[in-house]
Amino acid sequence: MGAIVIKDEKILLVKRNKAPHKDLWAIPGGSVELGETLQEAAERELREETGLTIKAGKPVHTFDLIEREKDGRLMFHYVIVDLEAECVSGEIRPADDAQDARWFEPEGVKRIAMSDSTRKLLRKIGFLYSS
Predict the structure, then answer these.
(1) Which of 15-19, 83-87, 125-129 has the lowest mean pLDDT?
(2) Residue 130: band (very low, low, confident or very high) from pLDDT cuts 50, 70, 90
């Protein structure tokens, strides 16, 4: 699950510290714990990864993330649900699974390394028009 947070025409991205997509910029998020709603999980994960308090909303994007070894063996299979979210308070303090966390303007995201799935999402929501 991920949270799409846009504030002052900038989007919040984290530089991943773990696979899949280690060292690439992505929408912040993580796993849903037993008994959590998607919204509760998004709010907890964002607090853990970025130090920000958010209010998570409805799902806006869903996709499978399947990665395989070169020989075809399965490495990861995640079903990702990205939620819209509003930043309520806090200052960015990257931690947990995030090496870094920053607000990016549309022009700034064109110059960073990110996964294909993140690039597709940014195009879908109209934040990235070309690369």
Answers:
(1) 125-129
(2) low
CA 102, CA 92: separation in Å to the nearest integer?
7
Spatial neighbors of 58 by CB under 8 A, at least 6 apart, are 83, 84
What distances in angstroms separate CA 91 from CA 42, 78, 112, one per listed residue? 17, 29, 22
CB 90 within 8 A of CB 101: no
Q: Can you give the pLDDT at residue 131?
A: 47
Domains and CATH numbers, the chain: 2-124 (3.90.79.10)
| β-sheet bridge partners, residue 12 | 103
Question: Identity (one letter) of the amino acid at 64?
Answer: D
Residues β-bridged to residue 15: 25, 100
The pTM of this model reads 0.91
CB contact at 8 A, 13 and 119: no
The whole-angstrom separation of Cα 4 and Cα 87 is: 10
Place of tokens 């949270």: 3
What's the mean pLDDT in 29-51? 96
